[in-house]
Amino acid sequence: MFNSYLVGSVCCEHRKSEMETQEYRLPSHWACYFINGDLTGYEESELAEIEGWELLHYPGPCVDVRDDVGFTWGGDDGPLGADRSTFVFQVIEEAFADGEVIGWY
Questions:
Q1: What pLDDT, on the 0 to 100 scale, is given for residue 24?
Q2: What does the alpha-carbon distance between residue 13 and residue 44 come to, in Å, rounded to a whole number?
Q3: pLDDT in tens, 21-68
Q4: In Å, how far are 14, 88, 97 from 64, measured between CA atoms?
Q5: Is the sign of the CA dihedral 29, 31, 37, 38 positive or negative?
Q6: N or C: which end of the chain has fewer CB within 10 A?
Q7: Residue closest to 62 by CA, chosen among 99, 28, 36
C-alpha cells in the first residue's frame, strides 16, 4: 500500500505497512546500549562483544526490552550464562523516496 502526499510541488510516495519485529534473548545489561545509545559503564571487551553481535545480526532500532529477565545458559549472544531479557528490534528493510528504493537498513 502506498501513501502519496505533496511536499512543495513534488509528490512523494511512501509505503505503509505494519511494523515487523525480531526478538532476541540478550544479556539484560545490554539494554542501556540498545535503548539509550549509552556506552558509559561498559569495558572495551564488552563493547566489542555488543558491537560484534550488532554487526553480525544487523538489527534495526531496539523498540522494547521485555521485563522477563532471568538467568539462562546461552542465548542469542552465545553460550555463556547471564541474566537475559527479550530485546525487540524493528525490522527495517527498505526506504522509499518517490517510489524508488534509496537504501537498505
A1: 96
A2: 43
A3: 999 999 999 999 999 999 999 999 999 999 999 999 888 899 999 999
A4: 25, 5, 28
A5: negative
A6: N
A7: 36
Q: How far apart are alpha carbons 53 and 49 in whole angstroms?
A: 6
SS (H, E, C) the chain: CEEEEEECCEEEEEECCCCCEEEEEEEHHHHHHHHHCCCCCCCHHHHHHHHHHHHHHCCCCEEEECCCCEEEEEECCEEEEEEEEEEEEECCCCEEECCEEEECC
pTM: 0.70
Residue (of 56, 60, 70) closest to 27 by Cα position: 70
Cell (9 digits) for 78: 552465545
Query: Grid coordinates 550464562 are at which residue?
Result: 81
